[in-house]
Amino acid sequence: MVAFPPAATLSAMDTYTFTLLLGAAQAAYAHAYAPYSHFQVGAALLGADGQVYAGCNVENASYGLTRCAEQSAIQGMNTAGVRQFDALVVYSESTPPASPCGACRQILFEFAPGAKVACVNHLGERLDIQVSELLPHGFRMAQE
Are 44 and 25 in contact (CB under 8 A)? Predict the structure, then answer.
């Protein structure tokens, strides 16, 4: 299990953004293709352009070709020409709520190390964290 920092140190996303992204993440979750693991995930992010981009996990018999929900949302955002996001909600029915995998953490860090992330499940359990806290000392080719 991931060790999350104490909630008091985190700056959670505002209620409106969370509610908006949670609805989109839950809708994406309903379309997840997970016939092998049966582990569905939906994700939604708020792009720097103010638009919501959602994605779900899409598995493949060749597991290495599987796409995570977070990656699907990032791909949608990039397809629209947007290269930064402010907030992300990851929805699953796992207890505790699922957090992004290592590969997704690196991909998220590439686009928005300072973005807020809320991992939430069907029971309403919620973990708030920042992308840079998910991946301390993250790697980027172009330093700003």
Answer: yes
pLDDT of the residue at 11: 57
The answer to whether residue 51 sits within a structural domain is: yes
Task: Give me the domain span that covers residue 87.
Answer: 9-94
Tell whether 108 is covered by a domain.
Answer: no
Rounded average pLDDT per 10-residue block, the chain, 144 residues: 39 89 98 97 98 98 95 98 98 97 96 97 96 92 66
Please answer whether residues 11 and 36 qualify as being in contact, where contact means their C-beta atoms are separated by less than 8 angstroms: no
Catalytic residue among 59, 70, 93, 133: 70
Using alpha carbons, list the distances in angstroms from residue 43 to 9, 60, 62, 76, 129. 24, 19, 22, 11, 15
Task: Decide if 70 is catalytic.
Answer: yes
